[in-house]
Each structure stands twice: as structure tokens, then as C-alpha cells.
Amino acid sequence: MNHTRWRLAQERRVVEGYTEPPEVVAEREEIRLALVLGQLVYDRRTSLGLSQPALGERLGMTADAVDALEVGGMLPVTADLLVRLAGALDVTVDLHVVADGGNTVAFGERAA
Q1: What is the pTM for the complete model shown?
Q2: Residue-averaged pLDDT of the chain
Q3: What phi and psi values does residue 78 have, to the nearest 5 degrees?
Q4: What contacts 20, CB < 8 A, 6 or more positions away?
Q5: Which of 4-18, 43-57, 66-80 is least confident?
Q6: What is the pLDDT of residues 63-88, one digit of tens each?
Q7: Which of 18, 22, 85, 90 has the CA that lies 20 to 30 A from 41?
Q8: What are phi and psi of 44, to 5 degrees?
Q9: What is the H or E stretch that residue 107 is in?
Q10: Which pLDDT score, from 0 to 100, does residue 80 have?
Q11: Are the CB atoms for 84 and 96 separated by under 8 Å?
């Protein structure tokens, strides 16, 4: 499959003056944020030497749900989920939200 054609079509639409509806832009941003969070969870889980079932037990969810979270499939990203992740992974969660997108999420070390 050649994804280059998708980019070319998108660029052509932009040149023609097409803009995506705000709800599509918001959904795309939510998906991007979920993917970033999933990578953070995977990296932290593996650095702690935890298996998916072990992290699932800490979070009160199944190993399959942890897998879905790590691949960015857990939507929406909720405050409750972020709080539970902070506790289970022993990190601080920094979420920076801006109106025009470009939201960021990061894990930090807990202060001793």
C-alpha cells in the first residue's frame, strides 16, 4: 500500500481551499494524543520490567486493555485514566492543552 498518494491528495485539497471540519480536526488530535500516550505507557512499563498483565492488575484492567492503550486504541483519554496511570507507573503526568491543537502529554519522575 502506498500512503504517499494519501498525502498528495490531502495537499491537493489544501491547495484547492478545502479545510477539514472542526470535529474531524479534533478527532485527529485526540487520536494523535492517544498514540503518544500509548508509547509513553509502553516505554515506562518496559523500563519498570512490568508485563501487560501486571500493569493491568495495577490499573484494574485486563492485559488486552493495556495492549489497546499502548497502541493508541484507548479513546477518549480521560483524566481518570491519567490519574490511574500516574499511580500505576509511579510518574507524574503532564498534559498541556491548547485550543488550536498541538496538545502534549509527558511523564515525569515523581519527586522523592
Answers
A1: 0.80
A2: 88
A3: -110, 160
A4: 28
A5: 4-18
A6: 999 999 999 988 888 999 999 999 99
A7: 22
A8: -70, -40
A9: strand 104-109
A10: 94
A11: no
- Could you say which DSSP state residue 76 is in? S
Indicate the domain borders of the chain: 19-109
Give the model's confidence band at 111: pLDDT under 50 very low, under 70 low, under 90 confident, else very high: low
- Phi, psi angles (nearest 5°) of residue 106: -145, 155
**CATH code of the domain made up of 19-109:** 1.10.260.40
Helix ranges, the chain (H): 4-15, 22-48, 52-59, 63-70, 79-89
What CA–CA distance (Å, rounded) separates 55 from 62? 9
* Residue 39 neighbours by CB under 8 Å, 6+ apart: 70, 72
